[in-house]
Amino acid sequence: MLSETELAQFTTAGVATIDTPLSGVQLAAASATLGALMPLPEASQPPRFRVGQACSFFDQPLLDILQEPFFEEVAKQALHAEQVEFFQTAIVTTYPQPGAAFSFDQHVDIQYCLSDLRATPRRMVCSFFLWLTEVNERRAPLMFRPGSHWLIAAERERDEVLRRQPPCVAGVSLAQLPALPYAEPVPLLARRGQVSVLTTAAVHGASVNIDTEPRQAMIITFTAAGVQIGLPEGQAALKRQYDADLRPRLRPDRVHIVPMP
Q1: Parallel, antiparallel or unpaired: strands 50-54 and 215-224
Q2: What is the pTM of this model?
Q3: How many other C-beta atoms lie within 10 A of the C-beta of residue 127?
Q4: 260, part of any domain
Q5: Residue 201 contacts residue 14 (beta carbons within 8 Å)
Q6: Does a structural domain hold residue 135?
Q7: 247 phi and psi, to 5 degrees?
Q8: Does 29 fall in a domain?
């Protein structure tokens, strides 16, 4: 669970990296599953070193992690919610890129108003980036600008139209965001089995893997029950189908985390 200090860090900075109760056996099984599902693409043009899947897998080692009660309980803390619901999931492997210089993307996946972040429950998505491998400064760390979501939210709060709209997932590059005094990007480093609890409303981005080993991550997201978060139509349709296919595959005591249509 989140300590008071970690919860404050999530609230203020937008990220807190914490330990999980997952066992070495669970982590190894999940890592092997990612290896089988997403090998390094061969002869792709241009070459691809970052591969991923979203809301498309039902492998038991990954389902066991997705329905682990730990994530539900931490999401309740982060969102100040009595009940939370599964939102989306993805898996990503970033392979070493020979000869590449370190670089990274910068964007947000969603934007909020101050009233969204200050609501009870919070009208936002809680994202878990579970690190299935160690993440060091060379192994494609997620680059993150702490607190940047608050600056964007304050800017949006001034717009009466935006205040009335529910938050909606929509990728926006740093160049397209307001020119605000964002903090410098920092790498999120972690041990294997730790999870970064974060908001993708903060400016962040994937980096190049200049290490010798792949970086693997599983992403799980939750929202407070009843909170509306918009999705592009393609993603919304995919979520509806995935929820329907996921529900009967979960343990009876965990089915409640998947929202009913």
Answers
A1: unpaired
A2: 0.97
A3: 26
A4: no
A5: yes
A6: yes
A7: -50, -50
A8: yes
